[in-house]
Amino acid sequence: MIFWRIKPLDQILATAEKKALKRQLGPIQLTLLGIGAVIGTGIFVLTAEAAQKAGPAMMLAFVIAAIVCGLAALAYAELAAMVPVSGSAYTYSYGVFGELIAWIVGWALVLEYAIGATAVCVGWSGYMNGLLMHSDMFGLVKPGAIALPEYLRTGMYSGGGFNLLAFLIGIAVTWLLVIGTSKSARVNAVLVAIKIIALTVFVLIAVPAAKSGNLEPFLPGGWGNPLGGGVGVLGAAASIFFAYVGFDAVSTAAEETRNPNRNIPIGLIASLGICTIFYLLVGYGAAGSIGAQPMLGANGLPLDPGTPEMTAACASHAQALVCSNEPLAHVMRVLGFAEIGNWIGIAAIVALPSVILMMMFGQTRIFFTMSRDGLLPDALSAVHPRFYTPHVITYLTGAVVSICAALFPVGKLADTSNAGTLLAFAMVAIGVLVLRKRQPDRARPFRTPLAWIVCPLAVAGCALLFWNLSNVAKIVFLVWAAIGLVIYRAYGYRRSQLANGGGA
Predict the structure, then answer these.
(1) How far apart are CA 222 and CA 235, in angstroms?
(2) What is the fold of 25-295+326-495?
(3) Model's pTM, two decimal places?
């Protein structure tokens, strides 16, 4: 039996009830919060990845991913409103399914946050390397004079050797997290504005330059392989799902929202809707202006991004969108707007580190919570005597993020991150239905509308996208899950707080 050692919701809520948060957020604030959390690495970096898998039909992939996210978000909002405490899906699972499932979900969240942060590091380095290669630094040097050697621009699995800048940004963010630096609401608002302005400028230039001929053939990779494997529109949707991660920031604000039953769905749907429109315009502008046809293999299907075969194909097609590590800046340069391309690159360089910081922050706090529950060694929840941050787990996370960023391609990392996210979201949707049956009278500040339709559809959508992830991502996920089960059986099973009569 897997549903055992369930941590009662009342026990989980005990700490949260000591401090009540003021309900002050309305639908506009929630919408802006969601837009700020969603727009980031996915659209700046993974546009080329989606184009390689689906060609111009990547626009359909954006819509499919948004629908799955919207369904999952409505389910997520109910549990977030009922259990407004730290720990995300791990905490919810502990209170609904019990310790084993909570462990599996918490272990999967490592892929969402840590590997997600790694993907952002690689995406950031792509824009930084592009700027060093194409910018004259305001006339101070010749373009390319300060570019890094090719060996240090990408990882060993992307045709290079060691992605130096991705490694360094990971180290820098780790240091910031240890000393306790966090972005204020004002800084966050500025970064959101930078991202919105950059995308708006791109759309205003690229969309008018679009030509219908560049969109043909529209479905070069088809809808996808029934056996999975990460190709076609569904494969692109599975990858581009990464572009929407962060929408749960809206649902986690339920405790601070006025009239959450009304405003939470407005914030979720509005933020996802606005981001989807932006993404569709960017995808149309990129594909229509310079083309988005994938590199095809001998079998006539798109090559798998981030492989030696893809690197070899791009060697003779450097101007292709699908071959760029900085797709939006690349489009601007191809269209003859080199300076604007450089400024879009600068916008990504300035804004993306905050995404790395928040993802690594989330990862360290998940492990911190699991350590306090006794499922991981106490040393991981050690707090720095000066900075009052969980420095041990932060150092460990930072080392893994930085090394992986230096070696692996962004697409494979994003897919692997999505594997953990999709599992967590599916378990949250199932959890809503379980609690509806088990505790129907418990107060629900927000109720998922048509839950018995929405939640099963959310689970089905997550399963569909998981199946269409790359085979590498699925294998990594299964190996990671197996390692987690071994650790749980060897350590957490005997030492958890609930096993020893604690857990308060």
Answers:
(1) 10
(2) Amino acid/polyamine transporter I (1.20.1740)
(3) 0.83
